[in-house]
Amino acid sequence: MAKLWAGRFEKPTNALLDDFQSSIPFDQRMLECDVTGSIAHATMLGEQGIISREDAESIVAGLNTILAEYRAGKLVIDMTAEDVHMFVEALLTERIGDAGKRLHTGRSRNDQVALDVRMYARQANMHVRELLLKLLDVIISLSEEHTGTIMAGYTHLQKAQPITLSFHLMAYAQMFMRDVTRFEHAYEEADVMPLGSGALAGTTYPLNRERVAELLGFSEVTDNALDGVSDRDFLLSFLSAASICMMHLSRFCEELILWSTNEFGTAVMDDGFATGSSIMPQKKNPDACELTRGKTGRVYGDLMALLTVMKGLPLAYNKDMQEDKEAFFDAYDTLINCLPTFTEMLRTTSFRKETMYESAGLGFTNATDLADYLVGKGLPFRDAHHVSGSLVGKCVRENRALTDLSLDELRAAHPSFEEDVYEAISLEACVERRKLRGGPAPEAVKNSIERAKAWRANHPTEA
Ligand code: ARG
């Protein structure tokens, strides 16, 4: 395709450079944004009398036809074009003649690409937010089912204290609610209109920047042309939100993988979300979880890639910045691939309540409560901790549980023990007593579920 900037050159670009610098293979996905942005720009140029009304109308009509053909899957994209912006402009001019050549008045590809990426980023943020809210709905409804399902809670992957499955799941609900907020912030950052920045120093034409922002639904316009063309913070915010979100998904996946092992045996993935082995007939592998965990690395990589691209760039636009798109699109594609799969996988996973309960009873998860019991009888916590520890030591040596010890054996460690100790250190009592806001007691978790539902009601989704 002929170069629209070829005026000052004496020979055509080398074919190697043509291929090397072309971004159309990946930026063609911004075509809708590009055309919509150009329609707004041309409309404003016409309104301001910078170009004639007739030219503006002819440009808008031509662009609308291109958009309609694209949406119908009928537009043939010229892969020899330098980028999507050049492709659209050249195609328009080919179709409508000289008016097409007036479209780029008062605009540079630098502010044009900034606009397109911001428009695309707004959609991407909204899309990921929707998918996260759907995941949140599944977590909340599973949590409502399991407020009484006792399981072991861990620190250092060693059994720690009894909790409930609902409490555990709601911990992830908190993470995903924060993720939603992060994507909403990333949206707000993207929601600033850069046209009018020109190449770097604004423009001499009397553009109406606010009008373009209004036509494209932007909340604000950028306030410095140099920054307007060289800022990619809004993509970095998307990529950091994406990285943190993938980290949350990955931790959740790791736990589901662990819980699906023969050793834990507390979660059973639906057959539809597991795969078999070509050699070992018994295998049922949690591939969806493993892949999600694995793909987390590439999203971190995308964030690192763009941070590194940006770190040494002098103001304003540098072609290095063309590298922003593949990182951004890759992270976006990865998220919208992982989230629905993970959501459905989680929704169809079943949890083995009995195994969870039995497992919570092992490993002295009630040793803290045994100490707390003695504190209730007047001992200082440090002394109570020591007595409880010595009883744990005895049980470890004799391969017994704390509840297996007779009252005499308990009293040999400290005379304050009475018959009510057994009730006090039952798993149910251990959980129920932790009813402070944020604790695992069923009533506390029910309250936290109610708060999450109220939050969700304030975050409506489209569908
Ligand atoms: N394809 C380019 C990009 O993605 C568009 C901006 C090009 N600007 C320029 N001055 N060469 O960044």
Please tell me the overall pLDDT: 97
How much strand? Answer: under 5%
Order of the strands making up the biggest sheet: 1-2
Task: Let me know the number of strands.
Answer: 6
According to CATH, the fold-level topology of the largest domain is: Fumarase C, Chain A, domain 2
Which compounds are bound in this model? arginine
**CATH level-1 class of the largest domain:** Mainly Alpha
**Can you count the helices?**
19
How helix-rich are the residues, as a percent range?
55-70%
Structure report:
With 463 residues, this protein is mostly helical. The chain has 3 domains: 90 residues, Fumarase/aspartase (N-terminal domain) (Fumarase C, Chain B, domain 1, Orthogonal Bundle), CATH 1.10.275; 219 residues, Fumarase C, Chain A, domain 2, CATH 1.20.200.10; 99 residues, Fumarase/aspartase (C-terminal domain) (Ribonucleotide Reductase Protein R1, domain 1, Orthogonal Bundle), CATH 1.10.40. The protein is 61% helix and 5% strand. It contains 19 helices and 6 strands. A two-stranded antiparallel sheet has the order 1-2. Strands 3-4 form a two-stranded parallel ribbon. Strand 3, helix 8 and strand 4 form a beta-alpha-beta unit. Helix 6 packs parallel to helix 12. The radius of gyration is 30 Å and the shape is elongated. The model has no long low-confidence stretch (mean pLDDT 97). The site of arginine (ARG) has 10 residues, from helix 6.
